[in-house]
UniProtKB/TrEMBL annotation:
Keyword set, alphabetical order: Kinase, Nucleotide-binding, Transferase
InterPro entries (alphabetical): Adenylat/UMP-CMP_kin (IPR000850), Adenylat_kinase_CS (IPR033690), Adenylate_kinase_lid-dom (IPR007862), P-loop_NTPase (IPR027417)
PROSITE patterns the record matches: ADENYLATE_KINASE
Protein name: Adenylate kinase 3
Protein family (similarity comment): Belongs to the adenylate kinase family.
The reaction(s) this protein catalyses: GTP + AMP = GDP + ADP
Main location: mitochondrion
Keyword Kinase: yes
GO terms under cellular component: mitochondrial matrix
Length: 215
């Protein structure tokens, strides 16, 4: 989020990996807001949170950001959500990260966790020293049900069916920009360069300096 004193831009980023909705939902539940209490009631019953509740949640958060630029990750996920968002905010750009499903499937199904600590391993690029064993405690690793091959395939197909109308919606509006690839470090430079063209010239130098400081 960036202060509107510099510039103001509203961006949506879409892709199977990553959702930002979960964190916002957690905070609202902890704070006991009206929407948070409503969402918690469904979760406590083991039910999925209805789409209209998630929409209200997202729009409620954005109400506090009228003087800031922002980037949404994971919302809108459906066509009705995109329409609801369009009624209250003009979206400047929608970035679609187009990664082959097979690549995502391979990455997710290789992910194992240590339940007690939350440590995450990936057998492809961040494997434990001993297969199936946590590096710190020596306890066994487990695979989340969501990361099992059959479940991953179902999730990917469901995501594709849900988001296709959303992508078409923003494509017709001329706001969609798709970046294809299989590795984050190869896709990101192109996304970054594209976003730089959307940011007013006077803000580019501070952004570059900030990034160098982080590195």
């Amino acid at each position: 989020i960036t202060s509107a004193q510099e510039f103001e831009i509203a961006v949506i980023i879409m892709g199977v990996l990553g959702s930002g909705k979960g964190t916002v939902l957690l905070y609202n539940m902890l704070w006991g807001t009206e929407i948070g209490v409503l969402a918690k009631a469904f979760i406590d019953q083991g039910k999925l949170i209805p789409e209209d509740v998630m929409t209200r949640l997202a729009l409620h958060e954005l109400k506090n950001l009228t003087q800031y630029s922002w980037l949404l990750d994971g919302f809108p996920r459906t066509f009705p959500q995109a329409e609801a968002l369009n009624k209250v905010h003009q979206i400047d750009t929608v970035i679609n990260l187009n990664v082959p499903f097979e690549v995502i499937k391979q990455s997710l199904t290789a992910r194992w966790i240590h339940p007690a600590s939350g440590r995450v391993y990936n057998f492809e690029f961040n494997p434990p020293k001993t297969v199936g064993i946590d590096d710190v405690t020596g306890e066994p690793l487990v695979q989340r049900e969501d990361d099992q091959p059959e479940t991953v395939i179902k999730r990917l197909k469901a995501y594709e069916a849900q988001t296709k109308p959303v992508l078409e919606y923003y494509q017709k509006k001329g706001a969609l920009e798709t970046f294809s690839g299989t590795e984050t470090n190869k896709i990101w430079p192109h996304v970054y360069a594209f976003l730089q063209t959307k940011v007013p010239q006077q803000t580019r130098k501070p952004q570059l300096l900030h990034e160098e400081k982080c590195v």
